[in-house]
Every structure is written in structure tokens, then in C-alpha cells.
Structure prediction request, 142 residues.
Amino acid sequence: MTSVALPPNYKPTEKEKYMNATMLEYFRQKLFRWKADIVKEADTLLHELQDEGGMQEPDIADRASAETEVALELRARDRQRKLIGKIDEALDRIERGEYGYCEETGEPIGIKRLEARPVATLSVEAQERHERMERTHRDERE
Prediction:
């Protein structure tokens, strides 16, 4: 895919052709920036954990609190790692010309949904169907 120069302050609109080259470049850059922010945040967290790693809290309550904080940070980092995978998948869909279309129906996902969740793979309707099915299956298991 060839890179397109974005006009200053460009925002996709419903009036233009859906997933045209400019719109795809907008979302590609948005995904790259999001990924870079996550990686930067993860690096900062890693350095903080390494700096704190050698310090043992003398008080048992302080130590428990510190360990809980580290566990929460590690869980957040795992979520970030999974999100980076989804961002990479979205970037691959852009390269393949599949970005912005529902994996189930092939219908456009929509600009508003992609602005809110650039890694979305399902239209709102398909996502709602999935969530209803998950609730039904969960209720059946309980």
C-alpha cells in the first residue's frame, strides 16, 4: 500500500467514499500512534518495576500493597500486549484492503465505531449478536 499525505487536521466523514486511500492512511497513522504510545508506556512501566525490584518493604502491609500493585501493573501490561496484537492485525487488514469491513457480514463497520475502536472487526450489529450469544451460553452453563 502506498502512503498518502494527510491534509492538515483531516478527519474522515460519512460524505467521502468509505475507506478511500486518505481514510485508510488516517486510520493507519492512528493505529501506529496508538501502538507507539502503548510501547512507550510499557517501557516506562518496565523501568519502574526494575527500579523498585530491589527494594523490599520492611512492613508486611506495605509489602503486600506493593506486591498487589505490581500484580495489577503486570495484568495491565498483558492486556496491552494483547491490544498490540489487535493493532498489528488491524494494520495487516489495511494492507490487505480488508480494514473497515465486518468480518462476519462484509458490511462497513462505520467511521464512528472505528474512531472509537480502531481495532474493531465487527459491525455494531454483529458485535451485539456475539454478545447476546455469549450471554446466552454463559447463562446456560450457570
User: Anything to note?
Assistant: The helical segments are 21-53, 60-96, 111-116, 124-141. The mean pLDDT is 87.
